[in-house]
Design goal:
One of its GO terms (molecular function) is riboflavin reductase (NADPH) activity. It comes from Azorhizobium oxalatiphilum. Belongs to the non-flavoprotein flavin reductase family. This is Oxidoreductase. Keywords: Oxidoreductase. This protein is an alpha+beta fold. The chain folds into 2 domains: 37 residues; 138 residues, Electron Transport, Fmn-binding Protein, Chain A (Pnp Oxidase, Chain A, Roll). Helices cover 25% and strands 37% of the residues. It has 5 helices and 12 strands. Strands 3-2-6-9-10-5-4 form a 7-stranded antiparallel beta sheet. A 3-stranded antiparallel beta sheet has the order 1-11-12, with no helix packed on it. Strands 7-8 form a two-stranded antiparallel sheet. The termini are far apart.
Length: 194
């Protein structure tokens, strides 16, 4: 067996394990399963997108946030078109991106809907405020970006959102919450001690 075959077999085993751990989904190709398994190896900062007002508030947990440009300040987030935040985001055209610290694991779970929370229930137990646009932002986030929807591009299962940052607030000394290989992680001495 050559090295390429070993990598392919290992990739297939990882994809099969990832598939077995998730509910059955119709017609997911082996390449898509391997892609999903591979992307779980890409560590990412955990953020929550917040959008809406009053009873229309909703949001989601994401690791798909990245900067696009500093001038003008713009970021990108990818939102599943089936997410509850999708239509509210397109209607409101303003939203917050909140980079989470290590103490925000429960909040990340709520915005991911892990215990069935939906809409305004995802905001429970946290302190929220606004900056310029009126979109809700987390008061103790590692960083909060108050955005206006600059452009939305539909591709495949997702909406690629370009958010023009109109205001930002950054915390001083806090460690980021990360997601890697299907679990929350953290940087620093506490993580190294494990």
């Amino acid at each position: 067996m050559n090295a390429h075959a070993s990598v392919s077999n290992a990739g297939a085993a990882i994809a099969a394990a990832a598939h077995a751990a998730r509910p059955a989904q119709p017609d997911i190709s082996p390449a898509s399963l391997a892609f999903r398994a591979g992307m779980r190896k890409l560590a990412g900062a955990v953020s929550v997108l917040t959008v809406g007002q009053g009873e229309a508030r909703t949001g989601l947990t994401a690791t798909s946030v990245t900067s696009l440009s500093v001038e003008p300040p713009t970021l990108i987030i990818c939102v599943n078109r089936a997410a509850s935040a999708h239509n509210v985001l397109l209607a409101e055209r303003r939203f917050g991106i909140n980079v989470l610290a290590t103490g925000h694991r429960a909040l990340a779970d709520r915005f991911a809907g892990r215990n069935g929370e939906k809409g305004p229930a995802r905001y429970a137990g946290a302190d929220w405020t606004t900056l310029e646009t009126g979109a809700p932002v987390l008061a103790d986030a590692l960083a909060s970006f108050d955005c206006e929807l600059d452009e939305a591009i539909e591709r495949h299962s997702h909406l690629i959102v370009l958010g023009r940052v109109v205001a930002a607030r950054v915390a001083d000394d806090a460690a980021p919450l990360l997601y890697w290989s299907g679990a929350y992680r953290q940087l620093g001495a506490a993580a190294e001690a494990r």
